[in-house]
Amino acid sequence: MTTMTETSARFREFKMPDVGEGLTEAEILKWFVQPGDTVTDGQVVCEVETAKAAVELPIPFDGVVHELRFPEGTTVDVGQVIIAIDVAPGSGDAPAPAAAPAQEPVEEPEAEAEPKGRTPVLVGYGVAESSTKRRPRKGASAGPEAAAVAAAVQAELNGHAAPAAATAPAPVADAPAGGRPLAKPPVRKLAKDLGIDLATVVPTGKDGVITREDVHAAAAPAATTPVAAPAPSQAAPSQAASEAPAAAVASGSARETRIPVKGVRKAIAQAMVGSAFTAPHVTEFVTVDVTRTMKLVAELKEDKDMAGVRVNPLLIIAKALLVAIKRNPEVNAAWDEANQEIVQKHYVNLGIAAATPRGLIVPNIKDAHDKTLPQLAAALGELVTTARDGKTSPAAMAGGTVTITNVGVFGVDTGTPILNPGESAILAVGAIKLQPWVHKGKVKPRQVTTLALSFDHRLVDGELGSKVLADVAAILEQPKRLITWA
What we know:
This protein has ten helices and 22 strands. It has helices at 144-158, 185-194, 212-222, 263-276, 291-301, 313-327, 373-388, 394-397, 462-477, 481-484; strands spanning 4-6, 11-15, 25-31, 38-39, 44-49, 54-58, 63-68, 75-77, 81-86, 182-183, 209-210, 281-289, 333-336, 341-344, 350-352, 354-356, 359-361, 364-365, 402-406, 425-429, 433-439, 442-456. Strand 21 (433-439) and strand 22 (442-456) form a beta hairpin.
């Protein structure tokens, strides 16, 4: 969708597009260009986050960046101009950029550190397919303090914030009233790495900007008096893991941190509340010996037909669920409240819940029922990589029919997963552990896991739900049934 306007023959404006399905707003996460940079048609100029995903926006024409209308961290309505491009540079003096409209202060996302080692990403629940409501906005602030904030933000965008002088000026007592602490992205990254809350740092830079020296100075006392910060919860499945840390609005005693609920996290909360209080959930559990499945995984890793794709227990579990759905197709359905109908799906878009830096999402593998095992493995690998990189598109999360959530990567035995809106079932997979098990009349150490299947009791009764769960368990216990039952 090309969203732009022509302000003159020389300047063209690019508006915030609707990058989802009927979305009304998006947050500017990062600008990849600055005023004065040359851009070409199709070049990505910024990354924005909607209620569904983070999306990169390409510019649809050539030219030189004249003006960025909003700073990073600002939530912008669809249709608002976000960048102006000089398409005929050098043809005369350009007018001064218009001041960016005052916005409600929103924290700029900090740079994320590279993952160390194995990062579990398959866990959690996704977002609704419906559009989100527009968030209420405060009125534009006015007065000299607001002007100072806008000027400082614009200076930061243009990269002209002055470095600290050789002799430090007198410290500024407080950050601008009602605004977030002012600091460049590298300084925010440094504060994050040192565990420093920028709201507690006394700025010494020009116009109240926090410098690297200010952060280092604050780090010394912080080593003996740490500021409490909540860890991402993994106990409640519908709220396990959080988005990248947002601005800390500390209390007077610095014992609290307040994180704005927005973007993907806000959509998740709304979807889970709607699902939990709309669909009558039933959850059933089964503990199963998966020793033979683990042996199959080891053999497939050495199989030349599986070369180049990742083979793990989740692959066999996904295939087992697809076979169980084929044997019990009534479970692959949705409830149409408006028409009072059960909509039977003759295809399976298999959702895989993924924990990402910005929250939990559920991209799905389209037409998973038609894929061979190597094709399913390749699709799973691509889905996980894309989610981990934060590049999952809204289209990849739309149209799911059933979901798998792998809480076992965190060592969790099982859970009671909440249905994704519009779906009838979700399978939770627990940790696979070596446990004593009665095998052929003797107690032996075996690889064991617990499965939990939640389903919508309006369209899936106890018998049907039990059959699906029992079939998945039977396949994992005797994976040769992937062939005999397929």
